[in-house]
Amino acid sequence: MKNTRAQMLALDQNHLIHPLHVSGAHDNARIWAHGYGSTLVDTDGKEYIDGLAGLWNNTAGHSAQELIDAAASQYAKLPYASGYVGSSNEKAIELAEKLASITYPQINRFYLTSGGGEATDSSIKMSRYYWKLKGKPDKTKVISRMLGYHGVTFAAMCATGIPPYWPMFEPRIPGFSFIPSPYPYRYETDDTDVSQGVAAANELEKRILEEGPETVAMFIAEPVQGSGGVIPPQDDYFPRIREICDKYEVLLVADEVITGFGRTGKMFALEHWDVQPDIVQFAKAITSGYFPFGGIGISDEIADAMEASSKPFMHAYTYSAHPIGSAIACAMIDLIEREDFLSQATAKGQRLQDNLISAIGDHPNVGDIRGLGLLWGVEYVKDKSTKEPFDPADKIGDKILNSAIERGLFSRVRGDVFCLAPPIVTEYSEIDRLAAILRAATIDVLGV
């Protein structure tokens, strides 16, 4: 006999520990039974728009037959093989070639992982390894940004600039420091001689000089900060960041785990500003969440230094270059190109922006609507004219989220920022309904 929802929740609470686990928070959880397109269906049969594409990753939706077939075919042929040196597989080789054809021009070599946190750790290790090969072993430090999210493996957590992730596991690893987010809605500077974007970028130069340029290995940044509240930068921000990294010999690491593979309307988001990183890290949409997978791509300069060295890169994952993940990723890249996800994200993102502005843009508690491609955030404030935030104890974001969920929109919030990143395959009618639901939830909690 099939368990009831209450029975399944009891079993869940008795036996599972969830990400961000806290007692009581799972009491009214949804238990997902199946999905199709941009829709999730729970065990009661109720349907929800998947407003965050799972966790930003399911860009192809929940029923992409091409990805299912790619996995099934590879499972039947070769379900696993080691990717250690001296061993490879056909799909990993095919994937590396495909990645070289779609990433930044100077990036042609790839190390594959099981996800984004492992990719961050790989970037950190690669940066330290590179500078040791270049005869600069003191260049070990990592600079990142507040509100940046880079994963929660231990080193990745130390680079993540969202403080609630830290206290339970401190002391953190030494050698990690932060600069402010460029956050156009809230960043403030006394430097009136330059634009807001350049002033925010100059925070990196200040930090490098404080740490000592000879000690800084890398600067890691999401092109659009995602989990921190969907924060696109100013247009002149990353060009200035690139100049600073070049000036002080600091590797620029683009964390494209959320923004990669078409989410922002470009294959990779730094393309919006004609900036190329030294290392790019990716995960999530490379398999649309159908298999845990990720990796990093490194510049030809870093790759050449590795090849010229007799010192091995002592970094290894059992599941690096996994043939199933590689097969799904190959199929996903084909799908992105065939269905033109880049144009879809641009057009549907514009539709979502227009709908959000029309639905809630004039609401007295909607302070900012921001985004890029099909990646958006709505920031609620107590006072629109002063940008005064609500008291966190009011839990306005959580209340709006719960109201939206009851109306059939499932997503996440960061404080009082409602985050939206539906699958790229989401139909226009669903994008329209998404905005209508958020309007209804906003009025339900905050009034007209």
Structural commentary:
The protein is α/β, with parallel strands linked by helices. The protein has 2 domains: 31-63 and 340-446, Aspartate Aminotransferase, domain 1; 66-338, Type I PLP-dependent aspartate aminotransferase-like (Major domain) (Aspartate Aminotransferase, domain 2). It has 13 helices and 15 strands. The strands form 3 sheets. It has a 7-stranded mixed beta sheet with strand order 4-10-9-8-7-5-6, with helices on both faces. It has a 4-stranded mixed beta sheet with strand order 1-2-3-13. Helix 3 runs antiparallel to helix 10. The protein starts with a helix and ends with a helix.
Keywords summarizing the entry:
four-stranded mixed beta sheet; alpha/beta; 37% helix; Aspartate Aminotransferase, domain 2; 2 domains; 13 helices; 448 residues; Aspartate Aminotransferase, domain 1; 15 strands; single chain; globular; seven-stranded mixed beta sheet
CATH fold call of the largest domain: Aspartate Aminotransferase, domain 2
Largest sheet: 7 strands, mixed
Overall tally of structural domains? 2
First CA to last CA: what distance?
A: 47 Å
Proportion of residues in helical segments: 25-40%
Number of strands: 15
Helix/strand structural class:
alpha/beta
Mean pLDDT: 97
CATH superfamily of the largest domain: Type I PLP-dependent aspartate aminotransferase-like (Major domain)
